[in-house]
Automatic annotation (TrEMBL), chain A:
Annotated MacB-like periplasmic core domain residues: 18-203
Membrane topology recorded in Swiss-Prot or TrEMBL: Multi-pass membrane protein
Protein origin, superkingdom: Bacteria
Compartment list: Cell membrane
Pfam families: FtsX, MacB_PCD
Organism: Belliella aquatica
Keywords from the named record: Cell membrane, Membrane, Transmembrane, Transmembrane helix
PANTHER family found in the cross-reference section: ABC TRANSPORTER PERMEASE, ABC TRANSPORTER, MEMBRANE PROTEIN
Transmembrane residue ranges: 20-38, 278-302, 322-354, 374-396
Principal location class: membrane
Protein name: ABC transport system permease protein
From TrEMBL, chain B:
Organism: Belliella aquatica
SMART domains: AAA (SM00382)
Superkingdom per UniProt: Bacteria
Any Pfam family: ABC_tran
Domain ABC transporter: 2-210
InterPro entries: AAA+_ATPase, ABC_transporter-like_ATP-bd, ABC_transpr_LolD-like, P-loop_NTPase
GO molecular function, one term: ATP binding
Stated name of the protein: ABC transporter ATP-binding protein
Keywords: ATP-binding, Nucleotide-binding
Amino acid sequence: MNMIKLSWKYLIAKPLNTGLNILLLALGLAIITVLILIQDQFENKMTKDAEGVDLVVGAKGSPLQLILSSVYHIDYPTGNIDMKDAMALSKNRLVKNIIPLGMGDNYQGYRIVGTNHDYLALYDAGFESGEAWRKPFDVVLGFEVAKKLGLGLGDTFIGSHGIGSSSHEHDEHPYKITGVLSEKGNVLDKLILTSIESVWYSHDEGHDHDKFEADVSITGFPETDEDREVTSLLLQYRNPIAAVQLPRFINSKSALQAASPSFEISRLFELLGVGVKLIQGLAVAIIIIAGLGIFIALFNSLKERKYDLAVMRTLGASSGQLFIHIVLEGVILTLLGAIVGIAIGHLFLAVLVMQNEQGAISGLSAAVFLQEELWIVGYAVIVGFVASLIPAWTAYQTDIAKQLTKS
Amino acid sequence: MLSVKNLKFQYDSSTKFEIPDIHLDAGEELLIIGKSGSGKTTVLNILGGLLKPQQGEVKLGDTILSSLTGAKLDKFRGKNIGIVFQKPHILSPLTVVENLKLANFFVGEKGAQNLDLLKELGIFDKRKSKVTTLSEGEAQRVSIARALANHPKLILADEPTASLDDENAAIVVKLLQDQAKKFNAALIIVTHDQRVKDHISKHIIMGGLV
C-alpha cells in the first residue's frame, strides 16, 4: 500500500464518475492535440514545399489561389498565360531560374503536371525506379500515386481533362510510365509529372506523329513556333533586390500576376488563425469545465469520505498525507485524461487522414509525436492540482474527534 | 505503562468533565462505564490523542501523549494505539487485507503478522473481500484486526458491543481481551453496556451511578 495506490483505489471505487471526468478532460485535450499536430505538420509541409520558390507567376486572379494551385497543387489554377510573356520574363536579369508548369489534367484525381527536369531538381527528387521523361507522353509517378494506383514502370493510362477526378477522359493518347519517384514526404508524392509538351499535345486536335517522337525539352521552355500557353512559372531570384523590384514589375504588366509563397502562406495562416483561435478557445473552455467537474466530484466525495479520512488519521496518517491523498486523486485523474486525450487526438487525426486520401490533409501523419504534447500532460496535471487544492485543504483540516463522534 | 493525571476537559462552561486518574500496566484491562453524555467518549478521544486535554497529562510508555502535536502525534497514535469504534468504519474501496496494510503503511510497518491476525479472528477467508460483502460481525472483527495491525501498546474500544446480541457481545469482549493479552497491551473499553461489566473487573464509572 502506498499513497498512489490508495488514491487509485478510491478512484476506481467510483468507475462511472472517474470515467466521465477523464473523458471530459480527454475531449478537451484531444482537440488541442489535433490542433497542435495539424498546425505543426501543415506549417512544416507548407514551408518545405515552398522551399526554393521565391515567386510564382501566373494569370491574374487571387494570389493565394495561384500559390495554392502552383506550389501545393490543392486549388484550381487561375488560368493560363501566354508563353511569349513567360519567355520574356525569363530573360530578365533579376531572374535566376524559372520553371514552367502546365496543368489541367488528372488521372483518378491525381494531378498531371507538365514541367521540365528542373522541377525534379528543385525538390531534389530521387527515383525509386526508372528515370525521368524524355519523349512526349512519358510520365513519372509520385511515390504515393504509384502506391495507391498500383501502377509501375511501362504501364499506361489515359488522363482525364480537368483537375478533379470526375472529369471526362481524353481518349486520344495514353501516357506511359517511365519512372517512379522515391518517397519524399512533400508535394511530389501526389503528382504525376510529365513534360509541358505532353500536356499540350493531349489537348491538341490532330495527331502529328513526328512531334510525338521528338525529344522533349529537359530544361527551360519547350521549343515551338506555335502560340502556346503555360499555366504558371516558379521563379528564383538572382539577388535580394529582385524581391523588391520583380513582383512590382510583373504585376504592372497587365497579363501576369506575381505572388510570393511565403507572404501568401503567412496571410493564409492569419486567416485560418481566427478559426484556430476559436477552436482553441472551445478546447480551453472544455478543459476548464473538466477541471470544475473534477473539483466538484472531489468536493462532493469528501462529504461522504470525511469519516474515512478521520479513520485514516487514527491509523496514523498525518494531515499532510491526507492532503497528498486528495491531490493525488486529482492529478491521477488528469494524468489519465491527458494520456487518453492525446490518444484520442492521434486516433482522430488517423481517421481524418484515412478518409481524405487526396486532399490537403492526406499528407499529414498521425504517428508523429511532438514535444508540445508533453506540455499538454504538464498542463493537465496542473489542472488536476488546482482542482484538488480546495478539497485537499478541507481534508487537511478535518477534525478527527469531531468527525468520529458525530455518527 | 499508561498513566493519566489531573485530566480536565470542557466543551463549554456548562459541560465540564472531571476525569479520574488512571494507571494501567501492560496487559491490564479497564472498563470505563457511563451513560451517554457522561464524557466517556471524550475520555476515549483524549486517551487516543484525537482530542487535546485542557489540563493534565496522558503518558503512554515514556511518551507524554498530550504534549505531542501534528504529524508526530499521528505517527505515535498509529504505531502505539489501536482504536476500535462502535461502527467498524472499514474503508470501503479497499479489501480487508488492504485495510490492514494501510494501517501498516502509515507508520512504516511491514505487516508480516496481518494474515495470522486475520486467521485468529476467523476472517482469513474474507481477506480479499470488500467491506460491503461482510456481515456486521465480520466487519467488527476486521476493525479489531486493523486496530491490532501495528501491535499497539494500548487498545481503545468505543462501545464495541453496542449493536451486538449477548452471545456476540461476549465473543467480541473475549476477542479483545485475548488479543490484548497476546500483544501484552493495555485494553480500555468505553461503554454504557452493563453486560460488559461481567467480563472485566476493573471499572471506572463516569457521571455518577448507572
